[in-house]
Amino acid sequence: MRKAMVAGNWKMNGSLVSNELLVNTILKGADKLLTDSVDVVLCPPNVYLSQICELLKNSSVMCGVQNISLHQSDGAHTGEVNARMMKEFGTKYVIVGHSERRANQFESDADVLSKIKHALQYQMIPIFCVGETLDQRESGRIEVVISDQVLSVLDGLTEKEASEIVVAYEPVWAIGTGLTASPDQAQEVHRYIRSLFSSRYGQELAEKVRILYGGSVNAANASDLFKMKDIDGGLVGGASLKADEFLGICRSSTNLVVSD
């Protein structure tokens, strides 16, 4: 069975006061979820990591981070934070390769691979993001783009390492726009991503890899998306800043039943 997962990416949002209210409300709602069937993760900005990890202590909700440095070793890297430092707070997940970082910080596929390996070295689970732009979709290049992004990472991983990552398909044209891929559109790409793992490592491993959908997920569309065979949950942006919306998405994910 693949366990469902919902990860909240807060991006550059939050305050000490609003964070506490949001997390405490989520925790109250999470107590009523079937937490044995869904992993719930919150990824705040680094400056709030200590606060959020403390609030989540002794709960079923886990803490993640939005990025780690390319620099593995400590030293003269002003403004950088590496995986070792993040791990000290008790973080378990890290978002890697998000389209906003690929576009705005010019992160390459090679950078993404390096960060994934760095995260795995410190027993952090990478949430590896891939996705196409609207131009790439309309020009019929979806599979070429997705294949390039996925295989550039798999080429640098061992089979064991590949089995430990989570993938998030985030159509770039749907992020923060209010647009959402239809369930069938999302399923088609999720199925293709799983086929890439299968071709490289075999069907058994591919069926164990969790693939999340990450394009404007909200409480209204989550249920239809999560009914798809190869969609194992969501990487949630704006909706993760609203407790009711986020909990609604989490509730939708508990209906997932995916066999090996």
Automatic annotation (TrEMBL):
Pathway field: Carbohydrate biosynthesis; gluconeogenesis; Carbohydrate metabolism; erythritol degradation; Carbohydrate degradation; glycolysis; D-glyceraldehyde 3-phosphate from glycerone phosphate: step 1/1
Record flagged with keyword Isomerase: yes
Matches recorded under Pfam families: TIM (PF00121)
SUPFAM superfamilies xref list: Triosephosphate isomerase (TIM)
Predominant subcellular localization, coarse grouping: cytoplasm
Cell compartments where the protein resides: Cytoplasm
Annotated keywords: Cytoplasm, Gluconeogenesis, Glycolysis, Isomerase
Binding site for substrate: 9-11, 176, 216, 237-238
Record carries keyword Isomerase: yes
Chain ranges passing through the membrane: none
Gene Ontology BP terms: gluconeogenesis; glyceraldehyde-3-phosphate biosynthetic process; glycerol catabolic process; glycolytic process
Highest taxon of source: Bacteria
NCBIfam families: tim
Function: Involved in the gluconeogenesis. Catalyzes stereospecifically the conversion of dihydroxyacetone phosphate (DHAP) to D-glyceraldehyde-3-phosphate (G3P).
Family: Belongs to the triosephosphate isomerase family.
Protein name: Triosephosphate isomerase
Species in which this protein is naturally found: Nitrincola tibetensis
Designated gene of the protein: tpiA
